[in-house]
Design goal:
Layout: E1 17-21, E2 27-31, H1 32-36, E3 40-44, H2 51-60, E4 63-67, H3 73-87, E5 93-95, E6 107-109, E7 112-115, H4 117-140, H5 144-157, E8 163-166, E9 184-190, H6 191-198, H7 205-211, H8 213-216, E10 219-225, E11 231-235, E12 238-242, H9 255-268, H10 274-289, H11 300-311
Parallel strand pairs: 3-4, 5-7, 8-9, 9-10
Antiparallel strand pairs: 1-2, 6-7, 10-11, 11-12
Helix pairs in contact: 9-10
Length: 312
């Protein structure tokens, strides 16, 4: 058999050779001249070891075409996940012209995004926002233990400046107990949480206040709200009762918060007594309860108008 010239072996000097790839299996000795000026490397067989192909590309700038009939999508996905773990990557995107057989568009397989070259641009914009938001959250959580400790020290050091709203709602019932706090300037707690903290559901509220003055003394002003039954304001061993203004209501959701914020506002003006602050706060919370949800916005004019009507 006569072979064409390009298939006939020829001898090359040692100094004209170069070894590319791994030291063991996966490395090959090639002529420097032929390798350097190659345009394409056809690799028939694929494994986890790509050292030869990598070295060949660096040496020649050639394009690599790799083919192996036994390689399928499962291989690429498992290899890609392995590469992600080695690089400590959080997100992996496999861009390919051949999608998995069971999909015809971008999808997520085993935690890896798989998309076409056309889909990659849109996906990259979405993932960019996801990564930026994740990074913001991650930064905000850095040294969170130290931050909590500093905040706790600050609050306990300046507890006489604390205004605490200890109201019950559907999500925090039973968790907003006064026993969580070491003291403060003003605390406003609803009857349900007050009774729960003292483990007493039947005794008169005023009697409970008298029997538990030790707790009251941790605060400059101690308020217990009782919904339609009014509230008690305790200050310097004095307990005052202030009745509710509005009896008929539609929706009491948020009334405790309205009462608390209104009380703090009127108190901070230094123009009203504590009894007057509670009275005006009852008006504000009652106005809020006259409508469902936040349908009725309380304005300064509407509040003054109703207040003047009630006072007259």
């Amino acid at each position: 058999m006569i072979f064409p010239n390009f298939l006939k072996p020829h001898f090359v000097k040692k100094e004209e050779l170069v070894r590319l790839g791994s030291v063991d299996d996966g490395g090959y000795v090639l002529p420097i001249k032929d390798t350097k000026f190659s345009d394409v490397l056809i690799s028939l067989g694929i494994s986890d070891n790509w050292d030869f192909e990598k070295d060949f590309v660096k040496f020649s700038k050639a394009k690599v075409i790799a083919y192996d009939y036994s390689i399928n999508n499962d291989f690429w996905i498992s290899k890609f996940k392995k590469d992600m773990q080695e690089k400590n990557a959080d997100i992996g995107i496999l861009v390919t012209e051949k999608l998995p057989n069971d999909t015809d568009r971008m999808s997520i397989v085993n935690g890896i995004y798989i998309c076409t070259f056309q889909e990659f641009r849109g996906l990259s914009h979405v993932l960019r926002d996801v990564i930026l938001n994740y990074n913001r959250i991650k930064i905000s959580q850095e040294n969170i233990g130290d931050k909590k400790e500093l905040l706790y020290q600050f609050l306990t050091k300046h507890k006489r400046k604390l205004f605490i709203n200890c109201q019950t709602n559907s999500s925090n019932f039973g968790y907003n107990l006064i026993s969580k706090y070491n003291g403060g300037k003003i605390i406003c707690i609803d009857e349900t949480e007050f009774r729960l903290s003292l483990r007493n559901k039947s005794e008169d509220v005023k009697k409970l206040l008298i029997l538990n003055k030790k707790i009251l003394n941790n605060y400059e002003i101690f308020i217990v709200t009782m919904g339609s039954k009014g509230c008690y304001v305790c200050h310097k061993n004095k307990i005052e009762y202030i009745p509710t203004i509005f009896i008929n209501t539609k929706d009491t959701t948020g009334c405790g918060d309205i009462f608390f914020s209104s009380f703090i506002f009127f108190y901070s003006t230094n123009q009203f007594t504590l009894k007057e602050c509670a009275f005006l706060s009852h008006i504000a919370s009652g106005m809020h309860a006259k409508s469902e949800g936040n349908e009725n916005q309380i304005t300064k004019d509407s509040f003054f108008k109703i207040s003047q009507t009630i006072i007259k």
